[in-house]
Design goal:
Layout: E1 2-10, H1 28-38, E2 43-47, H2 48-54, E3 65-71, E4 89-95, E5 107-110, H3 114-123, E6 128-131, H4 135-141, E7 147-153, E8 179-187, E9 190-197
Parallel strand pairs: 1-6, 1-7, 2-3, 2-6, 3-4, 4-5
Antiparallel strand pairs: 7-9, 8-9
The chain binds NADP nicotinamide-adenine-dinucleotide phosphate (NAP).
């Protein structure tokens, strides 16, 4: 199983403004690279807040991929959003308290944490998993990610309430995840970084 993430952030580490409105931070080249990465996954996972801001399917150009949404109970999610009718994706809602009748175009899994979800997806043959954020979801999945793709964009967003690459409770100096830089590409004022997770043996 391979688990990788891809997010764009401002120089100060924010992935969206504090109001969580949809704001594509990267250039067309960043989007091209995002679509190329999606072509290598079987499923991508995102948090419900990311769905609330984007409302559309996250599809790949050359294949049908599965979009997995994680939520406690899918509040403030409208079944008329384009996400729920796109023919380009398969949809799985990983939810603690499902209200199945509201979302008839979706399949369901009971969300019992990242490890159980990844195991359930693998049992369906979904083994290349792309984590697309946001920061709350990244906190849950960061310990499982092998490769972090991060685009640094030439902006400052600021805001103590703006989501960052990884939010949640935070690691301590003893538990922080250690990474190794594998690749760095510059495109104009944007940097594409690839970090591999270093795991102790
Ligand atoms: N720049 C980028 O590359 C990028 C990428 C992705 C997203 N974004 C932006 O980031 C923002 C969203 O990020 P975010 O950190 O606020 O939210 P998020 O991670 O997208 O979603 C958080 C939500 O996921 C659900 N969730 C997370 N962990 C859960 C758990 N253990 N159990 C049950 N549900 C859980 C909850 O949904 P419920 O509230 O339904 O319970 C929670 O409110 C948006 O503005 C989006 O546009 C930017």
């Amino acid at each position: 199983m391979t688990i990788f993430s891809n997010l764009a952030m401002s120089l100060d580490g924010k992935i969206a403004p504090a109001d969580r409105s949809f704001f594509p931070l990267g250039t067309k080249e960043d989007r091209r690279r995002m679509l190329a990465l999606r072509n290598t996954c079987d499923a991508l996972i995102m948090g419900a807040e990311t769905l609330r801001s984007y409302q559309k399917a996250c599809n790949a150009p050359d294949k049908m991929i599965t979009n997995v949404i994680i939520s406690s109970k899918m509040d403030r999610v409208d079944p008329t959003w384009p996400f729920f009718s796109s023919p380009k994706i398969r949809r799985i809602l990983a939810v603690q308290n499902p209200d199945k009748e509201r979302f008839p175009t979706c399949e369901w899994l009971e969300y019992q944490g990242p490890q159980a979800l990844l195991t359930a997806l693998a049992s369906q043959g979904l083994k290349n998993i792309l984590i697309e954020g946001g920061g709350a979801l990244m906190w849950d999945f960061a310990p499982f990610i092998d490769t972090f793709h991060v685009t640094i964009t030439p902006r400052i967003l600021g805001g103590t309430k703006a989501p960052t690459l990884v939010d949640g409770l935070g690691f301590s100096k003893d538990t922080s995840l250690n990474l190794q830089l594998q690749d760095i590409i510059q495109n104009e004022d944007e940097l594409y970084l690839t970090y591999k997770r270093l795991r102790s043996i």
